[in-house]
Each structure stands twice: as C-alpha cells, then as structure tokens.
Write a structure and sequence with these properties.
The chain has 329 residues and is α/β, with parallel strands linked by helices.
Length: 329
Amino acid sequence: MTSTTDANTDTPGATGTPEASGTYGELRAQLATLTTEAFRPELAEIDRLSTEEIARIMNGEDATVPAAVAARLPQIAAAIDATAERMARGGRLIYAGAGTAGRLGVLDASECPPTFNTDPAEVVGLIAGGPSAMVTAVEGAEDSKELAAADLDALKLTADDTVVGISASGRTPYAIGAVEHARAQGALTIGLSCNADSALAAAAEHGLEVVTGPELLTGSTRLKAGTAQKLVLNMISTVTMIRLGKTYGNLMVDVRASNEKLRARSRHIVSLATGASDAAIEAALAATDGEVKNAILVVLGQVDGPTAARLLTESDGHLRAALAAVRTT
C-alpha cells in the first residue's frame, strides 16, 4: 500500500467536521509510528542532485532489501511448508491486499498458470476494489474489513485454503480483515508486512515482517517495501510449486506451452532433462499432447503416453516418484 496522501489530512477544518478531523489525527499518529512512513532528513534535497546521483542512491537502497528478506527466511520457509501441505490436499493460495500490495498479489497469481500449469482458480489474487483497482485507485476500498470478508466468501473459502494478507504498513484494514475472516474459517493465514509488531502479523498464524526501513520518498511503499513483498511472494509461490512437484530439478516441467516462445521452451526443457534427440523429443511430446512432464517420463522411463499419465497421477504429479516407480517394476 502507498499512503503518501495520509500525512497531510490532519489540517483543521479540512474534513469539514471536528469528528472527521479527530479521526485523521488518530490515523496520522498511527502512521508516525511506522518505519515505512518515516521522514529521512538526509534526503530532503534529493531533487537537487543529478539523475545519476539519485539513481545511485536508489540502487543502494534497493540493495538492502535482500538482507531484510534473509532475516525472515525461517519464518518464510515455515509458512511455505504449511501452504504446500494445504495445497497438496486441494487447497488454494489466495493473496489479498490493497494498492501496490494488492497488485503484487494479483501479479504473482496471474503468473502461476503459464509457469506451473496451475488452474487459474488455484492461485488467486484479490485486490481491494476489484479488478479495476489494478489500474485506478478505488477510494476507501482498503479501509473495509467487510469488503475483504465478502471477497473471500465469494470464493467459497475452505479450511484447506491459504490466505496471504499483504500490507506494507501492516495496518491496512482490507488485508487484516482478509486474514481475520480466513482464520475464523479454519484456513491457513499468512500476514506479510514491512513493519515490526504489525497488526497484520498478529492476526495471522504466520506473521512475516520484512522490515525494510524508511523509503527514499517518504511513505512511498511501492519502493523498498514493494520490492520486498515481490521477493517474498516469489518465494511463496515458487517454492510451494517445487514442493508440489511442479518442477524437476530447476526445470519448469509443468510449463504451459501457450505461445511460440513457450513451445520452444518446452522442447528445450525436455532436451535438458533427457538429452534426447530432436526426433525423440517431438515423438514424446506428440504422444503426450505436448505435456512436458509426461514427455520426459516417456523418454526416461521408456513408457508410452497413457502409461506416463497413469504413473504421474499415481505419484501425485511428482516426476521423480513416477520415474522411481518405473525403475522398480
């Protein structure tokens, strides 16, 4: 979430009512406690520097993010293992956030089908305000816990699902509401924020607080905080898919060949996994309707297409297990 507008809303009379003014005063006090909102006086004249100097400072800021993520790797790994366990039982991975955080969740979810051949319903990104909020801010949407609950109810949430609330500040009502509602339904909950002692982490079973510190531009959490969130979401989805057998080594054997580039990549993956000739690769892909994982099993296991499909079903999609089954028969 970016909240650069909040800090200036406590002007007397600006809201029209004393009650509203008091509400914004309380919000301003809350924001003042967040490291992501802190002002950096040493950068107060950054606009007077050369473009290269600004870029160098920004690059240096970005270089600190991986260390902040590394400090939370044990907690991240535990959350991933719990997610993979639920997804292996048929559960879904659901991201929920507002603004930048919501967009990052939608982005990660949308990249899973072409990368891992998942059904679009398996990894879902919810953004406060709905799809239009991807490109245009929907005023007030992030402030509603009830909206988050309604969005999850529309998905018919189950206890096998995992809900990841994402909020740089860790106080966004939509993200907190999603986690609270999901936890009440028995779903696994993860709270990803960039401030310590956040309400979001406290609400979740797995609190991931990647503290990235004050931003280059005060309160613009699309910067370091956004980068940290992207890195963690990459880990959650990618490592979960590895645990679910969506890869063979570091090869994307469940890639969906939906365009020419991916069709070429599919053939390259089969080649790397098997060392087979082009003719053998084409024959294997033809025998398996273009399914990369099945084609690899056809080549390495020396089985036909239907047998490869059966073995993979019996091994829950894990290629190594299917190959082991071939070799022991």
